[in-house]
Amino acid sequence: MKLSHRVRPIQELQATLRRIHGRGYKAYKDIAGAYQGPGFILAIDHVQGDPFAAPSRLRAWVPHSIARFPTELYANPIRRIALADFIARAFAHASDDVERRRGSGKSGVIRIDTPGQEVLPRTAVLVHDEGIEIRFVVGLPAAGRRILGHEAEALLLRDVPEVVRRAAFYTSLDAQALRAHVLTVEDTDALRRQLPELGLVAFVADGAILPRRSGVDPRPMTGPQVIPFESPPERRITVTLPNRGPIAGMGIPKGITLIVGGGYHGKSTLLNALEVGIYNHIPGDGREFVVTDPGAVKIRAEDGRRVEKVNISPFINNLPFGRDTTRFCTDDASGSTSQAANIMEALEAGATVLLVDEDTAATNFMIRDHRMQELVAKAKEPITPFVDKVRQLYTELGVSTILVMGGSGDYFDVADTVIMMDEYRPRDVTVQARAIAEKYRSERRPEGGDRFGDITHRIPIAASLDPSKGKREVKITARGVKTILFGRHEIDLSAVEQLVDPSQLNAIGQALYYAREKYMDGRRTLREILDAVERDIQHHGLDVIDSRPMGDYAYFRRFELAAALNRLRTLRIK
User: Fold this and answer.
1) Residues in CB range of 282: below 8 A, 6 or more apart
2) What number of helices (H) and strands (E) belong to the chain?
3) Does the structure show a pLDDT above 80 at 86?
4) Which one of 30, 119, 174, 558 is most buried, counting C-beta atoms within 10 A?
């Protein structure tokens, strides 16, 4: 853990708090520094300027000789991530038990960036070679704007050490639950890594619980109506995991896969599980062993979004008034142009799998049937429907597609695999779908041409990213999982459905600024910039994007970083 101050005895912190008791709140600045606490170092990095402002940022450093976690629990990178995740959850539980109101505003708050159902690399807890670093915030106590030194003493010298002890000392934790947590995450990660050699883009384990409690509660649904997943015999494979051993489930192969079935039979539920299968999940989530190719990107229509010089010509050409679709720009995209742009931007960023649900797709982008072809000649229709490009995406670019489709059998002609959800149970109906396609020949004419088309790699202009607001040169904040405020500009990410945690948006906003400062030189393409940022994070962790030791950053993929940049309405392309 890097410290900007020498480590002083904890008694000095106690003496300072007693000295500043009753003074104006800004006197709290005197406590900044590092102190040797009971079994750990307490670092006070940033002191809030007001009891109603964002809480103060602190860190705790516990050496392994004190924490005493078995070395096997952090023997490799993925185990370290899982251990850090478990400690963060334990810290959150302990702080809920210990925290009490100690004055006005945020006085008495003890908070850590608390994980959800996913296990993401975070900056809240870091497991180093030498020890464990915990980053959290506290609300320093005040009455109005007067320091409550005695309350602060109880908070920092009693409550915080108690929470640290209960979260970061091995003997305070449930050893069996911790071990299960670490080994489950390692197994999930190993399962995902096996997908390429198995020729798969996804795997869904038998016994998985896919439905969630609600649209705002991502925990698994419970009750007698919940049906555990069971693979069709034709698609069942067995994979051996490093800790759990053999596990059986449904493999989804590379190529074009349709998920079909009646309404409310579980099609979208399966696709939603695959969307977040790019992340590891906690034991008990129900989707621990639902894994998806990490290059999978969910695609949907997004009316009203801005598009900046994207080559959408593989899908849209011959617009009225001769508008150029090889460098297409709009401040208010339609359903079809936004979906085309979303696909092309994903391909530009390096996507290997597209996930599409007809419920959130533009109908005229997905299919143009025979009758409509007869009424509106191709020369008058600028859109080449997805059905005529999806095969070329795979054969030319190696990009697979998983598509929920309940309304058009024309996709039977291009599908490699067809899975029917029947009362939440999957059936392999590939043979039947092919027989139907053969018996009832589609009269529509293919409109996709001889090849998919070009992917244009764009060069973003650094000056078009302005993070300043008022007197602050850099003002970047996130609002939930939907919005980043980048300076004076709002980035709407509500249609980027694979974001699951507000801390991902915190990190993405800062990463945009990092990329602007370090890599946007007017020569590098967007993909080269994404490569560079991704490489830096892999080598140095999320701390690389910020000079401050922040505790509220979580892992994001290059695709979500690109999505944020593409939705910044000030973006300009060279």
Assistant:
1) 85, 115, 117, 118, 119, 181, 184, 185, 288
2) 15, 28
3) yes
4) 119
Strand pairing report for 33-36 and 7-9: parallel
Number of domains in the chain: 2
Q: What gap in Å lies between CA 165 and CA 39, rounded to an integer?
A: 8
Which of 140, 173, 206 is at the close of a domain? 173
**Residue whose entry in the numeric block shows the structure tokens 């899982």:** 82
Q: Taking the CB of residue 332, how many other CB atoms lie within 10 A of it?
A: 11
Exposure class string for 202-239: b at 16+ Cβ within 10 A, else e:
bbbbeebbbbbeeeeebebbeeeeeeebbbeeebeeeb
> At a CB cut-off of 8 Å and minimum separation 6, what does 425 contact?
227, 230, 266
- Which pLDDT does position 429 carry in this prediction? 98
Helix (H, G, I), strand (E, B), or coil: what is residue 390? helix
Q: Which pair of tokens denotes residue 462?
A: 């650094």
Which of 29, 30, 31 is CA-nearest to residue 157? 31
Structure tokens at 77: 């990178």
Q: Taking residues 320-330, what's their average pLDDT?
A: 89
**Cβ-based neighbours of 517, under 8 Å, separated by 6 or more:** 462
First-last CA distance in the chain:
41
pTM beyond 0.90 = yes
Domain with 145, as residue range(s), is 7-173
Q: What's the number of CA atoms in the CB half-sphere (13 Å) around residue 212?
A: 15
Last residue of a domain, one of 139, 173, 207: 173
